Amino acid sequence: MYKMRDNLAVSYKICKSMSNYQVKVQPQDKLFSVQQGETVLDAALRQNVGLPYGCRSGNCGTCEVTLLEGRVSYADGIPTGLADPDYDCLPCQAIAGSDLVIEAELVEQAVEIQPHTMPCKVQSHEQLSHDVMRLMLKLPENQRLQFLAGQYLDFILPGGEHRAFSIANAPHDDELIELHIRHIEGGKFTDFVFDSMKDKTVLRIEAPLGTFTL
After folding, report:
1. How much is the average pLDDT of 125-146?
2. How far is CA 4 from CA 7, 101, 107, 122, in A?
3. Which of 164, 167, 132 has the alpha carbon at shortest distance from 150?
4. What CA–CA distance (Å, rounded) separates 183 from 67?
5. 127 strand-pairing partners
6. How many helices (H) and strands (E) does the chain have?
7. Does the pLDDT value for residue 13 go beyond 80?
8. Domains in the chain, ordered, with CATH?
9. How, if at all, do strands 152-156 and 202-209 pair?
């Protein structure tokens, strides 16, 4: 009997240690869960909760929110972009130590995300079929692209011409930007992509663009 109680107590402790924390966003009363060791921002984006963010490294302060209730910790110490660690937190680095209540302005529409022009580097390219190339782009260090599903980007070509392509990866998976580019015979940019582009090529993009989102 005592052995059974001990086993139940151990099981309860294990389940409790593995349980998720809940985060409530005010004033929208938006609720999402955070797994053990997961940053608040990663959890929010995984569940399509539009917390704003920029660099995702704790330096820019774009994602700063007011911490109304609960406690958080930072694996690498207090981020440089955090103005007031007693009252605010940076979700891109914050790991929940309890249930949280935060105050933040959620990004719910594409028009709320300001497009930026920036350089990017071709991390890799892979030909998926005779006329489709998968392109993986990497932004400069400490930069991330916040976007909504359904948005696209423009490549800015020498001379100022633009070429538009849909972003293929999910918004929460933003370490690299994934594009699927279809070859158009005689197309200036797609001919370049299929015939002469190399890894580490530097390109310029404007993103995110488009208001038809999912």
Report:
1. 93
2. 5, 38, 50, 58
3. 167
4. 49
5. 133
6. 3, 13
7. no
8. 2-108 (3.10.20.30), 111-209 (2.40.30.10)
9. antiparallel
Q: For the chain, first and last CA: distance in Å?
A: 55
DSSP sequence for 30-44: EEEEE-TT-BHHHHH
List, in order, residues 6 or more apart from 53 with CB less than 8 Å away.
41, 62, 63, 91, 92, 144, 146
**pTM score:** 0.62
Residue 75: Cβ-neighbour burial (10 angstroms; 0-12, 13-18, 19+): exposed
One-letter amino acid for residue 4 of the chain: M
47-56, 105-114, 194-203: range with lowest mean pLDDT: 105-114
- Is 18 in a helix, a strand, or coil? helix
CA–CA dist 116, 151 (Å, integer): 13
Rounded to an integer, the average pLDDT of 9-14 is 40
- DSSP letter for 7, please: H
SS3 of residue 193 by DSSP: helix
* CA contacts within 13 A on the Cβ side of 129: 6
Rounded to whole angstroms, the Cα distance separating 179 from 203 reads 13
The one-letter code for the residue type at 135 is: L
Length of the chain: 214
Three-state secondary-structure class, residue 102 = strand
Q: What value does the mean pLDDT of the chain take?
A: 86
> What is the spatial distance between Cα 169 and Cα 199, in angstroms, rounded to a whole number?
19
The answer, yes or no, to whether the previous bond of 27 is cis (omega within 30 of 0) is yes
pLDDT exceeds 90 at position 50: no
Q: Answer whether residue 4 shows pLDDT above 60.
A: no
